[in-house]
Amino acid sequence: MLDRHSRLAIPTESYFIPQLWDRHGERPDREAFAQDVSRLARVREWGVSASDVRDRLSEHPSFAGAIGAIYAAYAEARGKERYGDKTPLYMQSLPTVARAFPDAQYVHLIRDGRDAGLSFMAMKRRPRFNLARPRSLPTFAAEWRWEIEAARRFGATRPYLELRYEDLVREPEAQLGAVCAFLGLGFEPAMVDYHRGVDPARLLDHPKLAEPPGPGRSHWREQLALGAVQEFEAVAGEVLSGAGYERACPQPSRRALARGAAIRAAFTARLRCWQTAIALIRRSPVWRLRQVYIRRSAG
Q1: 60 within 8 A of 28, measured Cβ to Cβ
Q2: Is 161 helix (H, G, I), strand (E, B) or coil?
Q3: pLDDT tens digits, residue range 214-272?
Q4: Could you write out the DSSP letters of every residue in 164-186?
Q5: In terms of DSSP H, where are the helices of 78-225?
Q6: Per-residue pLDDT tens for 140-167?
Q7: How far apart are CA 24 and CA 119, in angstroms?
Q8: In CATH, what is the architecture of 105-286?
Q9: Is the entire prediction scored with pTM above 0.70?
Q10: Other beta carbons less than 10 A from residue 210's beta carbon
Q11: What is the largest CA-CA distance in the chain?
Q12: Domain residue spans in the chain?
């Protein structure tokens, strides 16, 4: 929707920002960074080349300047002056996103966690090699709660707007108008008709983009057993209520609350273990040698 605005370019999900941070750090080498970017399949899909990036980099760029060069090249090729990113996975890398976009404005789109959980559990491909990723609906509830609370803490000191997916599909003009006002843009009706300008190639992977989303429905009411709903709400019920979602079980039993607390604690422990493991890997000699190889191969 936002990409349809005449002044704003929002490409497909990027995924590469944490990867580039790990490889290059706060002060990337100009040539090594440009060459590394040219090897990223996603950037090639965007039509951005190494020379496009290199030409926009200073002699000694910052990480923010280097990332900005990628997005500026994408936006300028489309005649637009502003750009953004819409990668949901970055909910787990917010400090890195802040390094990449120090002056960014953040729009946080929240969906009913019970419906989001249904979608997640129905995915054919689930992330591998990440011990913190959920394997059940209750553990997804723990992650959903953690991400929303983390985003709100992050947004407390930054330009931050929160809206609900269900409200967006029910009244798109009003919600998009609020987003545009937040971003300092004028509302454009083309954003509501975004499906008319979708690249046909994208429809192969995302056929639902061919038409606008219909009025929001609570699919969890039809597809989740009451016991599963109770488990989800025992883990994340307070956040559901705080976001304005009606709870099916507003007064869970003590046993359910205790189990919910245990699931949250287990998720937090796994998450910290995973974060510690990644930090140790990135400090290891093998990782440093990988960094050197990237720079030398670029040279």
Answers
A1: no
A2: strand
A3: 666 678 999 999 999 999 999 999 999 999 999 998 888 888 889 899 999 998 888 88
A4: EHHHHHHSHHHHHHHHHHHHT--
A5: 94-100, 113-122, 137-155, 165-170, 172-183, 200-203, 220-223
A6: 999 999 999 999 999 999 999 999 999 9
A7: 35
A8: 3-Layer(aba) Sandwich (3.40)
A9: yes
A10: 12
A11: 63
A12: 1-104, 105-286
